[in-house]
Please model this.
Amino acid sequence: MTTTAILAAIAASFCPSQTQGVPAGPGLSQAVLPGALSPGDLAAAGGDLILDEPGDGRTWARGPRWKASFGAEGLTYIPFFGSDAPQNYPVVLNLSDVTIASEPLWLESRERSRLGESVTLDRGSMSEVYHVARDTVEQTFVFKELPVRGELVLEVDVQTELQMAAKDGGFTFSNALGEVRYGAATAIDAEGRSLTLLQESTASGFRIVVPADFVSQAKLPLVVDPILDTFSVTNDTRRQSDMDVAYDPANTKYQIVYSEFQSATDLDVIAISYSAILGSVLQVAAIDVSSSSWTMPRNASSYEEEQFLCVSLVGLGVGSRSVWGRTRDADTGNGSPQFQISGVGAEHVDVGGKGNEVATVYDYMVVWQETDGFNNDFDIVAQAVSGNASLTGGRRIIDGDVGDLDRFPSISKSSGQPGFAQELQEYMIVWEREVSPTNRNLRAQVIEYTGDMTGHSQFNAYTFSDSRRPDVSCWSRRNSFALERHWLVAFERQVGAAYKIFTVVAVDGSADNARSVQTMQNLDVDADHRDPHVAFNGQDFLLTYQTIESNGDYTAYLTALNVVHDDDELRTGLTLRREFLGTSEGAPGHVAIASHWDGGNSAASQEVGDAVALWLDFDSSTGDTEVGASLVEEVEISVLGAQFCEGALNSTGHAAWITARGFSWETDADIRLTCTEMPSNSFGHFLVSNVAGFVANPGGSQGNLCLQGAVGRFNRSGEIMNSGSVGSFTLFGVDPMALPSPTGPVSVQPGETWYFQCWFRDIGPSSNFSNAVEMTFD
Model:
């Protein structure tokens, strides 16, 4: 029977009175919960008061409108004049001299201490005490003892680019972007007597004078306390940038890190602990809130250490940046001192953590792109880091071939899972190699958790067309006895004028069969898609990416894939078509994702885990760019087939989409076919053949038939269904031992590949088809 005759027979035999069964929902294996942490939630958390001691000899504090350091030089107050400010405008206030009754008071060098939200700089007979609050810094000079009584004069030196002026008994420091207000000073003694004080400008700053009669009667300690505040004049928009997320299973916490512009030359990195169980932010801490610029934060967790390592590029400008890091205890939130990992010339850093419970000094592996000035090329370099924030062993040159332009490395978020042998704790590193200015391919290398590459050869992950910006998952394997492990690599590839997201399944030493995500989705095949990031959650691979819409917006989506096995190759099929995460209005965004398995899951159960997906949200009305997060619920069942062929748009304006899912066809006959995005209340059924093909508009249909040969129809009792109000239905219990054919039921033989598609009624007398899915029965 010809294909046209088959379609005519399908149409002729279809009668509503013959339909049986009930409509079924799409049965998606993931459920995304948008707004689990909205951009506003994270921005509010990150805007809280943060105090930090990064190991540079200072205490740093940060509020939403300012940040400040307290150290040997005194107080450095940095107002926030908006993320678009061209630079920082610090105001350095140094108490340089004190006289009492015209005699100098000896001031010792500052000894710093901190209690709660107060920082003390002890100068001997007096102390500078700073009380920090969310919006202000209160500077107090505390005189514990005085050698004599008389007029007390405090000389404060000021260093700043801002214009200083007297105002309301105090001073302002301002420019066109905003101003810092140094309020009127007040003297207060131990009995509560107070007096507003005279402040006057000097050549080097200003002085504060406490009259002799007040000093002579004061009961010590005597306190002088002005207050600093920031007022932004033109622009107080706050822009967040690159972000990442990692998971610690012992404490069931995610750590979300992101960078935020204090100014164009100063980016801070903030860490937020989030509980997926409680659905709330637990703690906000600093990775860096100093005046250094930290960009591109990436983080991973160590299963054995129960901690996170966040790494970042520090410095301004290509060629001048280096990699620094900082660990945070997943339970207490305590951070290590900041420490340097690389020399200058680093770009595009990433990090993975060891995933099992065996104690070792190789807790993390950091990888970055490094400029080789001698050979005028780029190398890929790695460095092991221990949980005590020190470097372990020497740096490893992953690819140092002369003349190669190797860039944008990505490393697995985890080296493996608990319960697996130590020798199986391995990362995959994937990077982009420029073949020509318009052509790039992908290279890959498996590296052991110690950094050893013996027995592992570098290989091509993908060599066709212009492929770039790869991201790689941790390895997937269903049980500790199976020999095969594989990683999923996601990347951008230029197809025509636009970029698409492709995935390829890689094993140690080889990779093949790249597949277009947009082709499998049968969605937005002509749009531009960027920035893929992938995680493995114990069963499926979760992929986030951005689509550049026709109006210039960047929309973040999540999809889910599973590896489909057959005798010859590993392929990917979609279990989730796509879910909307958020939109960045008219400005490039960024996405990231991590799952429970990215931190090592339960050694006993190896159960499927939740995941957290991140995206950037730019609000064009306010100019703010903020990070949002969504929780991805557990996966229930696995995909058994890979989508192919393009379905035509139907009357809904979308193309219908098919999935084949189940547990394992060898051990369980519960194979289910689902078709979604059909017109509501449409009748339809599934088709099957062991031959793929393509025929446009067969038998007068509006769709494309993707099958050829002996096409069978699932039109037996209970198999003809109605899409109902949701526009979808599911056929349960597909039996591979009794697939329909024109001559009767047939049994699938091991090694055969069969193809499935959905046919359905569209508007009026017309009909349409979904895309198709292929299954190989091993």
Remarks:
- Residues 1-35, 664-668 have pLDDT under 50 and may be disordered.
